[in-house]
Write a structure and sequence with these properties.
- 59% of the residues lie in helices and 3% in strands.
- The protein is built from eleven helices and four strands.
- The strands form two sheets. The protein has a two-stranded parallel ribbon with strand order 1-4. It has a two-stranded antiparallel sheet with strand order 2-3.
- The chain is globular.
- The chain starts with a helix and ends in a 37-residue tail after the last helix.
């Protein structure tokens, strides 16, 4: 059930975002070339709203009439957005209701700061997509490595898996985005124990790069090639460093997720480990599933 709801939600959300991006492009294309002072002021207000991540609802309510007066409002994209927006909200409600009685939520996820009902549903639903009819999580994901590989969090030839033009990816990019971006950012933002782990890993990575003579610079200091920023040899951006630490933190979360699933199904979680290879922990450094004491059960996001 959750797998289907999450798939429908992700589709509706993707269409909503596409409509928003078309509205943004339309406004900027219409007002950008204008020399009218009022148009420039309006464009500045619109850009401010976009930069501050105002919802499409708020932008429509506060700026639509003024933008229409300049012929700078995409009515078609707004109409399509109005079709998908209530669908997205409805599916969010259905996902939350489905998760409220889920054993993974009640036994562990509700105690993790930064994970609300919706995000918990997305995470569970993503991994449920791998299951065949009648198959359980424990039957499908026999090792945590299989779970990492399913969402592109494994390591291949010393690197995170990427995408090659003309070749089919071995994982779903949107699923990895839910884990690394939505979940990762949420865990960091609330400052719980996963954030503490992320901070330690980030500092360790920083020391390693400095020891190896690799320079860490802000993204705006990176050189450009063919219109795109790139990292020359011996240089890494702060954003890349942050992403690496966030990815390691999310791998820890997924390891805990796998352990919680195995134990809920009465299965052995195997040897207590978190990572293999360069991130290996000894048994003495095993990190059990994190529970933030200040977390509240069944809180909406």
């Amino acid at each position: 059930m959750l797998a289907m709801l999450v798939s429908e939600f992700l589709y509706a959300q993707k269409r909503e975002i596409a409509c928003r991006l078309r509205i943004i492009a339309y406004v900027r294309n219409r007002l950008g070339p204008s020399s009218d002072p009022e148009a420039k002021t309006l464009l500045a207000s619109f850009d401010f709203a976009v930069d501050k991540k105002w919802s499409t609802t708020k932008i429509t309510k506060q700026l639509k009439n003024r933008l229409e007066a300049f012929g700078a409002w995409d009515k078609t994209s707004e109409a399509v957005w109005r079709l998908f927006h209530p669908l997205t909200e409805g599916l969010q409600g259905m996902i939350r209701e489905e998760v409220e009685d889920n054993s993974l939520w009640l036994d562990w996820l509700c105690s993790v700061r930064g994970v609300g009902l919706l995000l918990a549903g997305e995470v569970i639903g993503v991994f449920a997509k791998a299951l065949k009819p009648g198959e359980t999580f424990g039957q499908h994901f026999r090792t945590v490595s299989q779970m990492w590989a399913f969402v592109g969090l494994d390591v291949r030839q010393g690197k995170a898996p990427g995408f090659t033009k003309g070749e089919q990816a071995s994982f779903n990019k949107q699923y990895r985005s839910i884990l690394v971006t939505r979940l990762g950012v949420s865990l960091i933002r609330v400052g719980g124990e996963y954030y503490d782990y992320y901070s330690r890993k980030k500092e360790a990575l920083k020391r390693r790069f400095e020891r190896d003579g690799i320079k860490i610079v802000p993204a705006d200091q990176l050189p450009t090639k063919a219109g795109k920023k790139y990292e020359p040899e011996g240089v890494i951006s702060m954003g890349h460093l942050d992403q690496m630490a966030r990815r390691v933190m999310v791998k820890l979360f997924v390891a805990h997720f796998w352990e919680a699933i195995r134990r809920a199904e009465g299965l052995s979680a195997g040897e207590p480990y978190v990572f293999s290879g360069e991130h290996a922990h000894s048994r003495d450094h095993y990190i059990p599933p994190i529970r933030d004491k200040s977390a509240k059960k069944a809180r909406p996001e």
